Amino acid sequence: MKKLDTFEKDILTDYEAGVLKSTSPSKTDLAKFKAAATATFIKDKRINIRLSSPDLMDIQARAMEEGIPYQTFIASVLHKFAAGRLYEKPSNLARKTTSAN
Asked: In the chain, where are the structural domains located?
């Protein structure tokens, strides 16, 4: 187990002392969250794209790092990009493609 920082230690201390209380969302909130999630992930359109073999291999490797199928990974990346929430996480794998920078 990793060493806890001060913030994490404070949370653990408060939890063990009973200061923190679990809260559950109401049935109304759960229904609202479920509807939002369903609307977000409806996949009603199909597209075809061409990728270079090395790019596809890199994408498949990244998907494997995340533990998800590569098609799901691609859809997730595109969704995050479209929503303005795409943040790059450095890969542990050596890149197979080269960029023209």
From this structure: 50-101
